[in-house]
Amino acid sequence: MTHAPSARYNVAYSPEGAPLDGKAPMYRAIASDLDGTLLRSGGILSLRTLSVLKRCMARGIRVVIATGRARCSAATVLPEELNEATWVCCNGADIYEN
Question: What's the pTM value of the predicted model, to 2 decimals?
Fold first, then answer.
């Protein structure tokens, strides 16, 4: 079965990240693990990944970063731009929302 591509991929966005068609974003939240998923093998967050996450947040999409690390450890590898994201730390024992 073949699916037609979603028309949402062809929407233009303002510099603030709002869709110019006036519709809400397709996704309300994006959640991802930190180590081995968002971070590259050297424990580095790529500029491309950071750019995508920042654009999502600018469009009103909640970004959730999940990790087994404590917040103080996660803060050593995540840039300040992601402080506005929701962090789920210690395998879900601690949740930080801004």
Answer: 0.72
